[in-house]
Design goal:
- The structure holds two protein chains of two kinds.
- Chain A is α/β, with parallel strands linked by helices.
- Helices cover 36% and strands 26% of the residues of chain A.
- Chain A contains nine helices and ten strands.
- The N and C termini of chain A lie far apart (40 Å).
- Chain B is an all-alpha fold.
- Chain B has two domains: 30 residues; 209 residues, MetI-like fold, CATH 1.10.3720.
- In chain B, α2 crosses α10, α3 crosses α9 and α9 runs antiparallel to α10.
- The two termini of chain B are 21 Å apart.
- The chains are: A alpha/beta, B mainly alpha.
Chain lengths: 256, 253
């Protein structure tokens, strides 16, 4: 397996009380998969993501990527944050070039790579703007371009569209799906939005809170282009709703 | 339109001030050599200008001010950037800083004069001390208050020291550091005069002592006004510089 999470446990002390964010979580992910971690707040989905990305240490258990134990963040695995994490004192172009500077890419090449990925996310002509001059959706596109620019193996996304309005969110979902198909990246995507998970994921890891654990893993049998209104889509969505016990009885009778 | 109203406010404020001064001059029974009128102060100002004394003293004072203030900022910001990232070390340094900080820089004056003699150095040292602590503490606080997401991003993109400090931490902390630098300017200028009154034979502070020794209250008042005006100009200059840097770093001005 490409990513192996084995018996991951993580506890926090919060206001004197112990809180189990991850209780014996095990998960295998294949290379090139699009995985959504889905669940209510407190289910440990962000903790799991941060642990795989190397930002948080587990109390026990192990996480391996490509056979190597994860101990700290790596430039090969990029995280996209909900609040974008753009550096406000750098222009859009300089933000995208941030990781390329670490990789000692020559200046001329940095410009070319930045231009390429800004075009990919539809932000040609915005090179010299500062982040505060862009909308939230555009800022997140810059952040995605910055992540793709270093050609990472894995992209971690921590509720990346959570702060955006519904329409912008759907547009970005379309784009990230296209990008993931084109670039063949392994993507781990945290969300609490069921439709978002069904729209994006190859597999949905459904998590429950208190203690944080995996309830089940749902394979999404939708291929290629996904239609939010198709019968298949709604069928998968209903299955997830059931897992959260959110489908009312009358609705089931109506379907029967 | 707003600019015009601001100019009007300044003019009215100054006229009222000069009028009150004149009324006080007429109604009080102080000797006019000890409490001169606004016009006498103006004449004294013209006298110091035509003799060339004022200009030389301003240059001397500004020279000392710039050296002391700039040196203080450079050392304090550099030290603050380091200590802000080493909370474990700073907790041992902070008690001493808190002990020294409330001591008026003038209290060091006799000590400084004994060590360095009379001249440029005591004034420069006093300005250095006056600006040092506000800049140091605002830098340490600014570094500690940096949005953690910038540090996470830096970690993710493998930005290590020293790049981390000048590429991420300094610009992220700059707005708060700038307000410390701005605050320090006022106190540094205040203590320049104090430093020159005790430890120098030239400069605006010395011009005040010299006027007192010659019982020239008119020159004394003229000098005081000049010190105030230069203080305002310096404050305006630093505001412009601050805004330039913030704009270059994508801040909302």
């Amino acid at each position: 397996m490409y990513i192996e999470v084995q018996n991951a446990c993580k506890k926090y002390i919060q206001d004197g009380a112990e809180f189990t964010a991850l209780d014996n979580v095990s998960l295998d992910i294949e290379k090139g998969e699009f995985i959504c971690l889905l669940g209510p707040s407190g289910c440990g989905k962000s903790t799991l993501l941060n642990a795989v990305a190397g930002f948080e240490k587990l109390n026990s258990g192990s996480i391996r990527i490509d056979g190597t134990e994860v101990s700290k963040p790596s430039i090969k695995n990029i995280t996209i944050f909900q609040n974008y994490g753009l550096l406000p004192w750098r222009t859009v172009e300089k933000n995208v070039e941030l990781g390329l500077e670490t990789l000692k890419v020559p200046k001329e090449e940095r410009h070319q790579i930045a231009a390429k990925y800004l075009e990919l996310v539809g932000l040609m002509g915005y090179e010299k703007r500062f982040p505060h001059q862009l909308s939230g959706g555009q800022q997140q596109r810059v952040s995605i371009a910055r992540g793709l620019a270093v050609n990472p193996d894995i992209i971690f996304m921590d509720e990346p569209f959570g702060a955006l309005d519904a329409i912008t969110r759907m547009k970005l979902q379309d784009d990230i799906l296209k990008i993931s198909r084109k670039a063949h990246k392994t993507i781990i995507f945290v969300t609490h939005d069921i439709e978002e998970a069904v729209f994006l994921a190859d597999r949905i890891v459904v998590m429950m809170a208190d203690p944080g654990r995996i309830k089940s893993i749902v394979k999404v049998p939708l291929m290629g282009h996904r239609d939010r209104t198709s019968a298949d889509f709604l069928h998968v969505r209903d299955k997830i709703f059931e897992l959260f016990n959110m489908k009312s009885d009358e609705y089931i009778e109506y379907v029967i | 339109m707003r600019k015009l109203r601001e100019v009007k406010n300044v003019v009215v404020s100054l006229i009222v001030f000069v009028l009150l001064w004149q009324i006080l001059f007429i109604t009080s029974d102080f000797n006019e050599n000890l409490f001169p009128s606004p016009y006498m102060a103006l004449q004294a100002l013209v006298e110091t200008v035509t003799k060339g004394v004022l200009f030389t003293n301003i240059l001397t004072s500004l020279y000392r001010f710039l050296i002391g203030y700039l040196a203080s900022i450079i050392v304090a910001v550099a030290l603050g950037l380091v200590l802000g990232q080493l909370p474990g070390v700073f907790q041992y340094i902070n008690p001493v800083v808190q002990l020294i900080r409330p001591i008026s820089p003038t209290a060091w004056m006799p000590f400084i004069v004994l060590l360095f003699g009379i001249g440029d150095v005591p004034a420069i040292v006093i300005i250095f001390i006056a600006a040092f602590f506000p800049v140091l503490l605002s830098t340490v606080t600014a570094v500690r208050n940096i949005n953690p997401v910038y540090l996470k991003v830096s970690q993710n993109f493998a930005i290590s020291q020293p790049e981390l400090t000048w590429k991420v931490i300094l610009p992220a902390a700059f707005p708060q550091i700038a307000s410390g630098i701005h605050l320090a300017l006022g106190s540094a200028w205040i203590f320049l005069v104090a430093g020159e009154m005790v430890g120098a034979q030239s400069g605006l502070g010395y011009q005040i002592i010299d006027a007192r020794n010659n019982i020239r209250a008119d020159i004394l008042l003229a000098t005081i006004i000049v010190i105030g005006v230069i203080g305002i100009i310096l404050d305006g200059l630093i505001k412009v510089i601050e805004r330039r840097i913030l704009a270059a770093w994508g801040g909302q001005v």
